[in-house]
Amino acid sequence: MPLLSVDELKVTFQGQGRRASTAVSGVSFDVDEGQVVGLVGESGCGKSVTSLALMGLLPKKGVRVEGRADYRGTDLLSLRPSAMRDLRGTQLAMIFQDPLSSLNPVVPIGVQVTEILSRHRGMRGQAARDEAAALLERVGIPDPTRRLKEYPHQLSGGMRQRALIAMAVACAPRLLIADEPTTALDVTIQAQILELLKELVDQEGTALLMITHDLGVVAGLCDDVNVLYAGKVVESADRRNLFAEPAHPYAHGLLNSIPRLDAPRGQPLNPVRGSINDQIAWADGCAFAPRCDHYTLECLEGAPELGPLAGAGAPAGHQVRCVNPVRERLETVTLADVGAGDDSPAEPVTQKEETSE
Amino acid sequence: MSLLELNEVKVHFPVKRGVFFDRTVGHVYAVDGVSLTIEAGQTYGLVGESGCGKTTLGRAVLRLNEITSGEVVFDGTDLAALPDEEMRRSRRRLQMVFQDPLGSLNPRQNIESILAEGMAAHGIGANRTERRAKIVEVLERVGLPADALSRYPHEFSGGQRQRIGIARALVLEPDLIICDEPVSALDVSIQAQVINLLEELQESMGLTYLVIAHDLAVVRHISDVIGVMYLGALVEEAPSDLLYAEPRHPYTRALMSAVPVPDPEVEDNRERILLRGDLPSPANPPTGCRFHTRCPWRQAERCDTERPVLTELADGHRVACHYAAEIADGTIQPVRELAERIIPEGESVAVSEKADTGE
Which residues are in the ABC transporter domain (chain B) (predicted)? Predict the structure, then answer.
């Protein structure tokens, strides 16, 4: 049985006198113990709202959350606030994108870490301070005793993110949700933080739900990947299958549109045309249809179902929400294939018509 | 002849303190001696992490920051020595595209007024009708509909706003466009559209670009020559493919190995060099080689006393490292305390053997 099983999660925002807008329109995925699951998508696809809904951090007013999120037999979405508070921190923990705004600027790091220890583990005084120092040391902050007395602004971006991770793992949670944990950081610091997360997962068997827009991060870290578009999972697969054979035209297009460090120069990128604004409601058909190259009239007959990829040789567990999935392996020419330093541009790839958004 | 030549450009910001008297107590050495050359029609990519001075350098070329010393020779004239009014006039030929497309467009001006402002300031187009005709033409070039003229920035998506920023530079028919993080605020699918647009425009209009970005993959995709900056100085400069194939400076190696590649096969078998610690403060830069505090290949004495200068190794490959040759042939071994090398099996060992990155 999976540790967390999210079933048809739906989040609708309805402000006073405003039209209701659906941020998440039926997301389902499972997270097993010790597994790293990725939720990938561009801004506005509902990935952050999904994580906030799971943690019970969405405002109560004006938000409707439907569906089920089964965590060890309890439904997180229908839990009383006080019960949720007990779970948060001990069983579930979260790391946010911007470490400066998620730490309290007027409270020393030490107080913020010991706060969790006293709330959930009943530790007080020197014992709590020692444990806090040990936690900071564990996430690779040098000179932890001095750092405990410092304020968030005295720490660098990478250090703040480490402090935040220390707070998240303070009570050895079973499930860690990381919402774009490295987006605000430089690449060399990003590499350090990703390595730290990998280590925690390996050593503690913590399950990690990784929310990101960076397909590079996903390729190196996640076991299973769910690609989100307009509030629904459009493709779900093991990372190897997803990157080798992306079946949904959106996932396929995304992978084709990123410049790669190891690709030879002179090849034009194939962007997905249009923008996220060009979407139709799932009720009327596939939301991606207006931007899709494989679009047929069938796409407008209601929302396609997320189903296993059909055809011979399709890997198990590879699911896609599309009536005309792309059936081709993604062949990316890398420098290794053409020989380093070869400057001659490869055969001009047929470039998709670039229309204005 | 090269279009732009920077000669030992320095930009130092004074750090002031005191209530009544602004005593200067020190300097932030944002850009500390950068020399580089950009040929006409070329794209020069400047990469580095935040705080390395790449944006300050880009702004210094346009003299949006005061240049402390050095020369900025653009098409034969030294911009650093020009009187303000002449500098203002020469900005027609040097334009900038900014990172934040919303923040760099006035929310209360419509698109026509935003684009016409620069034209009026530089005396392009005799009257409104002529300017409008030119603006419509440029808008079409960047892929925006003509009805955008009377609309306001908030009505556009991020990618479209960046197109407006590009159009604003283009209406003045510049020779050089400085793109400061042109795509970092955009979503992945939109990034590719804007990158393709920049490339198309370069081809059809013969533009020269100075692209400043932190994303190595993007820079590598569009640049002919790449310069890597660390703490206010260039540490390595090479043609794009050469830099990727044979990074010679220890910082470049670490930086390139830190960029995730969207391919599990590559990710699992890739060797990474993890740097320890953070960027030192540019207000108090380390002595000698600026990178010596984090460099795994650091040697005693010379690295922390003598500052290396950019020296040409092979055609067009310049490196600022005392031991670039020794590191390349493996005579100098890296130290474990300063960096970890992650090898494919997932174990981490000291960077002991010759780290053959890239090939």
Answer: 4-256
